[in-house]
Specification:
There is one protein chain. By secondary structure, this protein is α/β, with parallel strands linked by helices. The chain folds into three domains: 25-303, TIM Barrel; 326-473, Roll (2,3-Dihydroxybiphenyl 1,2-Dioxygenase, domain 1); 474-669, Roll (2,3-Dihydroxybiphenyl 1,2-Dioxygenase, domain 1), CATH 3.10.180. Helix content is 36%, strand content 24%. The chain contains 23 helices and 28 strands. A hairpin with an 8-residue loop joins strand 27 and strand 28 (634-641). Helix 2 packs across helix 12 (274-306), helix 6 packs across helix 7 (169-179) and helix 10 (244-253) packs across helix 12. Bound molecules: magnesium ion (2 copies). The site of one magnesium ion (MG) has 4 residues, from loops.
Length: 669
């Protein structure tokens, strides 16, 4: 992954500034952020191209080799060990305990020298017995620094948000200044600053060379005490709700040029594959660098404008500078993988949905179905990516084509963020479409959109003329959203993928009650709303989401929603095509009439057509669902009115209950 950005042009040659030659940023990860044994963690950190690691003491304790062997393992993988941590409950103690603490720290120094770690993290004392006396705490830290200096080691002091006396970076900084020892500096951590809503801005005013180390973590907005929050819910930057880039911007404006390190405690990570977590970590760090870079550049422009020829902001490190996300124009096609049997069944279902068989691939067993601006491809070719996907997952969506104004920029950005490029077999006269692997190993194609939606497909398919086309079509115009079911623990990883690789933004999370358990749902969408991907995760095994995950053997598309301009006409047409819509319990409509001021005739019309309804402000949503295809995926038909921008979450429980009832009636499903 090309990790060093091209930030130089922006940083040099600004009026009135000395020319800065920024250093490449050193990227680090704490071993506590990864699952597995120490060798596995080092292997994964190196594979994800980290420059350095922080060694967490427990990882060394549980390692069945010496500290020196751990050092060699890191060396062999090109990883610097930049920090050893944590050293707890050191400062603000009575004199007798302090002497014991000095003995304790000397033993850590022995270990650090074997390990080749130059810096020890001391976190602020959390014991309620800590003596509230800055002079004592500073003097004790100074003595430790004196001992460290004799060994050529350094100490960094970090304020924990739940420290007994010291809980802010500004307080920690006052102690560091008071101690006034060159071997003692400050360690700042985005979590400890942002979790207590402390303003990171003043970090910019500190002396950058007195900050010895910087840690980054993000967290979702949940209300609980900072300690439990920190232990269980920290996540990588870009996966939570904290403003990590404002924190990093302040740090870099101080002139800090040392490593930036991810220090994450998260229950999901402990069970996640080590390599996956490490590469998510790298992706998140690159993402926060991109955001920080934009923020610093923006602030610099503001400053220059505001202050005429004032001093622009500058940093000493080069931040990642990937190609910006391209403009997306929608889903240009969805590709299903099928075998000889399922391609027929799926073709019939698509026919009932009003799709016409529009073309046959020039060289492969692949059929194109069209309706309105929608292209669906059913691929049953044996020598293909689709077939290998079929062997793993059965009939399912194996690829999605995204229409974009600049497919080269799209694929460059994706690769810069560590996505794997895919090159499939291309026959004569066929178009090569750039593609990458999604996290479930399905494909995302970037399709050049010149205003004609089927452009890329025209070339690969022998198109059939359909004289009867308008009569069987059901008024479906475009793909509104593609919902994906994810295995537990993968939501953060997918959100990060969509945010960084495609530049999509996450929407507010929802919890959807299925009769068999809760489903967590969060959508990501492009700013222009042409791409929308609701992501669903279930913790219990019997929800519709969990059943999709198990039927698909992993993450996969759970439904595809088509937009209609007149859903009543569409549904009527679908019934004439013998399509079976998901039957909605009648009670739903009685409840609906009590929730919204709707005319009786309108509610009856909804009831007759198995349509679901939602309203937010002036926006209205009407939606209907097909019965599932082999309990794997289904289709949704919807109509948005008055700027309705969501997905009908209040209707999800009804839909999931209706699916559960259908399963009871058709136990073979
Ligand atoms: Mg920390
Ligand atoms: Mg939906």
């Amino acid at each position: 992954m090309p990790v060093n950005g091209l930030g130089r042009q922006d940083l040099k040659g600004r009026a009135n500034s000395t020319i800065v030659f920024p250093l490449a940023m050193r990227r680090s990860i704490a071993t506590v952020s990864l699952s597995g044994t120490l060798p596995e963690k080092l292997e994964a950190a190196a594979a994800a191209r980290f420059d350095a690691v922080e060694i967490f003491e427990n990882d060394l304790l549980f390692f069945d080799g010496s500290a020196k062997e751990a050092r060699l393992l890191a060396d062999d993988r090109g990883l610097e060990i930049c920090l050893f941590q944590p050293f707890r409950d050191f400062e603000g103690v009575p004199d007798d305990l302090f002497l014991r603490n000095l003995d304790r720290i000397e033993r850590k120094f022995d270990l650090m020298q074997e390990l080749g770690a130059p810096l020890l993290l001391i976190c602020s004392n959390v014991a309620q017995s800590t003596i509230d006396d800055d002079a004592r705490m500073a003097a004790q830290l100074r003595q430790a620094a004196e001992r460290a200096a004799k060994r050529g080691l350094r100490l960094g002091y970090e304020a924990l948000a739940w420290g007994a006396r010291v809980s802010t970076f500004s307080h920690a900084w006052r102690l560091v200044e008071k101690a006034a020892h060159p071997h003692l500096g400050l360690i700042v951590d985005s979590f400890h600053t942002l979790a207590i809503k402390d303003d990171p801005g003043p970090i910019a005013k500190l002396k950058g060379d007195r900050i010895f180390f910087v840690q980054l973590a993000d967290a979702p907005n949940v209300s609980m005490d900072p300690l439990s929050w920190s232990r269980h819910f920290r996540c990588f930057p870009g996966q939570g709700d904290l403003d990590v880039s404002s924190f990093l911007a302040a740090v870099l404006e101080s002139g800090y040029a040392g490593p930036i390190s991810l220090e994450i405690f998260n229950d999901d990570f402990r069970g996640a594959p080590t390599r996956q977590t490490a590469s998510d970590g790298m992706r998140s760090l690159l993402f926060v660098e991109e955001k920080t870079r934009a923020r610093i550049a923006g602030a610099s422009l503001d400053n220059e404008e505001a202050r005429g020829r004032g001093k622009p902001r500058k940093t000493h490190v080069q931040l990642f500078d990937p190609p910006p996300p391209p403009e997306f124009s929608g889903t240009s096609f969805v590709e299903f993988t099928a075998d000889a049997d399922t391609k027929v069944a799926l073709g019939e279902l698509l026919g009932e949905l009003g799709f016409v068989r529009a073309g046959q691939h020039r060289s492969k067993d692949v059929v194109l179905y069209q309706q309105g601006g929608i292209n669906l491809v059913v691929n049953a070719e044996r020598d293909s990516f689709a077939h290998s996907y079929f062997l793993m997952h059965g009939p399912s969506v194996c690829a999605i084509g995204l229409g974009t104004d600049d497919e080269i920029q799209a694929v460059s950005r994706a690769e810069a963020f560590g996505a794997k490029r895919f090159d499939g077999r291309v026959g004569p006269n066929e178009l090569h479409i750039p593609a990458i692997r999604a996290p479930d190993a399905g494909l995302l194609y970037f399709v050049a959109d010149d205003g004609k939606p089927a452009h890329a497909l025209d070339q690969d398919f022998v198109l059939q003329e359909n004289a009867n086309r308008p009569s069987c079509e059901a008024g479906l115009m475009r793909i509104d959203h593609i919902a994906q079911a994810l295995p537990e623990g993968q939501l953060d990883s997918w959100i990060l993928f969509y945010r960084s690789v495609l530049g999509l933004e996450p929407e507010a999370p929802f919890e959807l009650p299925d009769p068999y358990g809760l489903v967590h749902s969060r959508a990501v969408a492009s700013a222009n709303r042409t791409l929308r991907f609701p992501l669903n995760v279930s913790q219990s095994r019997n929800t519709a989401t969990a059943r999709s995950v198990s039927a698909l053997a992993g993450a996969g598309v759970h439904h595809v929603a088509f937009e209609s301009a007149d859903i009543f006409a569409t549904v009527e047409r679908l019934r004439r095509n013998n399509l079976r819509l998901l039957a909605i319990p009648s009670n739903y409509y009685d409840d609906l009439a009590s929730r919204f001021p709707l005319a009786d005739e309108f509610v009856d019309k909804l009831r007759l057509n198995d349509l679901l309804y939602d309203k937010v402000g002036e926006g209205e949503l009407l939606q209907a669902y097909t019965e599932p295809f082999e309990e794997r995926f289904y289709f949704e038909v919807l109509q948005r009115k008055g700027g309705y921008d969501l997905y009908g979450a209040p209707n999800a429980p009804v839909r999931m209950a209706a699916l559960a009832q259908l399963r009871r009636r058709q136990p073979m499903m």
